[in-house]
Specification:
The protein is α+β, with helices and mostly antiparallel strands. It is built from 22 helices and 20 strands.
Length: about 600
Amino acid sequence: MQEFTDFLAKQSPFSGLSNEDLARISAEIEVEYFARETVIVSAGSAPLDHLFVIRTGSVEVLDKGSVIDELGSGDAFGHISLLTGLPPEYSVRAAEDTLCYRLPDPRPLIQNANALKFGHFGTFNTRHRLTASALLSDAQSSVTRYMREILWVNATDSIRETAWRMTEAEQSFALVESREGLGLVTDRDFRNKVGRGEFSIDAPIGGMMSLPLITVSNKATLALAFMQMVERGVHHLVVVDEFEKPIGVVRAMDLSSVQLRNPLLIRAQIESAQNIDELAAASLLLKPSLVELHDSGIPSLHAAGLMSAIVSAILTRVLTLSDSVNEPVPHSWLILGSVARGEPLPASDVDTAIVWADQVGDGDTSEAITQNAKHILELMEKCGLERCSNGANADNPLFTRSRSAWIEVSSGWLSDPTRAGALLLSSIASDNQPLTQLTLGRTIMENIRETTRSRDYLADALRFALAKKPPIGFVKEFIVDQSGQNKGGLNLKDGGLTPISSLARWLAIALGDVRGGTIERLNRASEAGLLFGEESEVLAAAFRDIHQLVFDEEIASIREGRHPSTWISPDSLDSLTRSHLRESFRAISGVQSTIESNWMKRLR
């Protein structure tokens, strides 16, 4: 029984229990062996009165026959049905010969049931089985809640020895100390690199490690940590303290529910796609995943950040499969607009641009890259991503230039706002995220930082940024559209989101730092003294609330098969939401007015 106790003490949800409670649970354990491909749990079967903890081997979790996750040693399953009294939603099948500990409901056996920390697969069930508020609470808790103890090894240790130590410690990872810095190895490295014969088991582990470490602050929430996993395409993050010292590791498997992990699974399918047809099939999962995230109560800006990461991954994979990144002329593909800022809506299209390295005979280069861009955009649309309907696309000469041409034109925009299209193009180009050839792709961003913004440009750019006004009047609550198909409606994007994002972009350009999204830009402007008092907080709160309203409406449209729209009828809102929206519009309008009247004083 001591073996059971020692093993459970290292695993969630039992790691927080006292020795006495662990002993009580261990006394009830039954050991079960399942041969490969044995179905252990069947979806829709009678509610379970027990749960399983994997001792050795692994299992696959299946949704309608498709594998959606894989669990390994130390992971629990079956507990959702046990805790809720509902039939199992997913089937579980042994992926290999697997040994499990089977135990009854642990809550009646122990003194402090609150010490149980179910953090593994499906803890917060999908499709209305548990409340959205419970999921949201979990997603906003500290990343340290599911942090695992670090297993340290030396770069000179053999792969064989490291694997043995990982097995003994019941860990799927180890941190490696080397002269080059700290690295990470995971069980996936062993499967992919050792299993395929790339490394001998007696070779030093340092040759197989990944570095530099991908880290997350111990102050981060689970949602932010998970977004970083999706953005970087990894399943482990090293948690660091305020001094950047590693203090633990979190795994994707431990970070909440299956729907929070769905974007990571989609990204894995995207990156493993071997052709455009496979990539298109994986991309079809994006919108259903957004619907599930929404239904689970995940804030819209968090879901939007995940959407941006997946859209970027899809386009990057399109470029790889088309061999675009291997063209003779080095060039960088950029995503622009709301996707680059991490703020897209479910129906947002994708704005793109290209920067290519200066070459002799740029005329021929321009034509070749433009033709290639047309092909890439066609493949992108095959994968379900719509190109910009307003022409901000990589096959448009305005958005496809050499490095020197981008520097020349962007410098011209910042010094002479009277140049044709200067204000519109500079605002578009300020929101960009390079996907390939990152140094080359940062040309525009770096030039904005290094170029002096003229007073004339800042004055005209501010007028351009303030052109969109919230639809609020002095007599009526809202100024609604008076004709056409949207008669009686409000355009929440044009009247609520764009006024804030445009102002935040102007502040970012004025500071010479256009990184990040709208809220990050507002925070930097506040720290630099360009926003006074609570202006940053007021605008950020309004942006979050309005983004959520538009996101809600577009998700409803997707679910009902309607064409998504950013228009909404005030009459469709309850009185509290309508009142809150009216106050948000007035707050935006107030900040616009004060900045318009004293912007030069702020810049001094």
